[in-house]
Amino acid sequence: MADELVHYTVTGGIATITLDSPHNRNALSAQLRRELSAALESARTDDAVRVVQLTHTGPVFCAGMDLKEARGAGSGDQGVNEFPKILDQLWSSPKPVVARLAGPARAGGIGMVAACDIAVAVPEATFAFSEVRIGVVPALISLTVLPRLQARAAHELFLTGEVFDAHRAVEIGLLNACVPAEQLDVTVAGYLKSLSLGGPKALAATKELLSRPRPATPSEGFAAMNELSAGFFASAEGQEGIRAFGQKRKPSWVPAD
Q1: What's the domain range around 203?
Q2: Domain with 15 in it: what CATH number?
Q3: How confident is the model at residue 2 (pLDDT cuts 50, 70, 90)?
Q4: 95 and 19 share a domain?
Q5: Would you say 141 and 84 are in contact if contact means Cβ atoms under 8 Å apart?
């Protein structure tokens, strides 16, 4: 539809979710939030989807919450109340999510980048936790951003609201890679292809594993991890992967080229 702000397509096992509201720098308006959440739910429930790509049109990835809609609203009516669901959909998606940034991200937009499993940006992309400069707190996004960022950098950037570039975003853990614009699509495609080679259930379980609290010592976690590992070795997916390896073929879950 011409008036939709989020586009959803599926090709070769990859669901591409595109933010398309360049008139307000892809700000998280009520309509965009609603459509983005629906697209993420479609990707989660569609068995044909193996990997998700989150991208955008226009020069800005996402400017954060739509401040025009926030004016004059009480705390119970703020659009930010709907944002936890989106961050959780990204973070807990059983299918890996790759963020493709051809431009800047601010505030809530950075929260979404951090919630993705892999994020790639061009050198021209800039970032800022601008909340304190308008008298608000980066509370919600802290739940996805802080697990990614180095502690010293988080204190500096959350408190100052200063703009930083994509190269520093890689250094502090927000991005996986910063590549020239002409290499952006190739680099993202490489990540998407690599992710699509993993078993769907194995990928979902590994994502969950990465989010678990670490045991105090390895010995405290061996029993639970052994049960998880042995279960997957014996599972239908694990057995198919083992057969495919022995027969020098692709497992059945790998999308056709």
Answers
A1: 199-247
A2: 3.90.226.10
A3: low
A4: yes
A5: no
Give pLDDT tens digits for 188-211: 999 999 999 999 999 999 999 999
Sheet hosting strand 51-56, strand order edge to edge = 6-11, 14-19, 51-56, 97-101, 118-121, 177-178
Average pLDDT, the chain: 95
